[in-house]
Amino acid sequence: AVVSTQSTGATEKANSEIVAINSYTAVYRSNVDLFFYVIGDSRENELILLSVLNALYDSISMILRKNVEKRALFENMDSVLLICDELVDRGILMECDATNIVNRVHVKTEDIPLSEQTVSQVSYDILKSFNWLSQS
Fold first, then answer.
1. Alpha-carbon gap, residue 78 to 30, rounded angstroms
2. pLDDT (tens digit, 9 = 90+) per residue, 113-135?
3. Of the four listed, 40, 60, 98, 123, which is most buried by Cβ atoms within 10 Å?
4. DSSP secondary-structure letter at 72?
5. CA–CA separation, 130 vs 135, rounded Å?
6. Which residues are paired to 61 by β-bridges?
7. Which of 52, 74, 49 is closest to 63 using CA atoms?
8. How far apart are CA 107 and CA 88, in angstroms?
């Protein structure tokens, strides 16, 4: 496997790396106990891949309230998958603004039928309906 690493000033500030592996270009970012990867064709623009990575990371960070760790990510996997769905569709970049992505994900999670919601979502809705969240 042919591997070459490229690090620019822009990626160093964002704690991101660009790696070329065979016929693919990958950008990745690490945080605590997680690695986030965005992989594209070798002809893809690295800046576009980096913007996808940053939008993904920033959206997840907003959903997890800046607690980007493995445990928190697994507990909110449904929202993470919705973020991926809003970000890219069949390899086409749909949205790159983390705030817009998070707003759309919150709208989708509110419209989920009761039978398909997780226990944490149902309990949150119950507490919210009784105004117990504002008291604690």
1. 21
2. 555 556 666 666 666 666 655 54
3. 60
4. H
5. 10
6. none
7. 74
8. 18
Q: Which residue type is seen at 118?
A: T
Summarised one tens digit per residue, pLDDT across range 20-79 is 888 899 999 888 788 899 999 888 888 999 999 999 999 998 888 888 888 888 888 888
Amino acid of residue 111: D
Tally of CB atoms within 10 A around 87: 19
The distance of Cα 50 from the centroid of its chain, to the nearest Å, equals: 13
Q: Per DSSP, what are the bridge partners of residue 4?
A: 20
Q: What is the pTM of this model?
A: 0.67
Instruction: Report the 3 state secondary structure along 75-134.
Output: HCHHHHHHHHHHHEECCEECCCCHHHHHHHHHHHHHCCCHHHCCHHHHHHHHHHHCCHHH
Residue whose C-alpha is closest to residue 50's, from 36, 64, 62: 36
Rounded CA-CA distance 48/135 in Å is: 44
- Dihedral (C-alpha) 119, 123, 125, 130: value to the nearest 10 degrees? 170
Distance of CA 29 to the CA centre of its chain: 12
- Per-residue tokens: 16: 């991101």
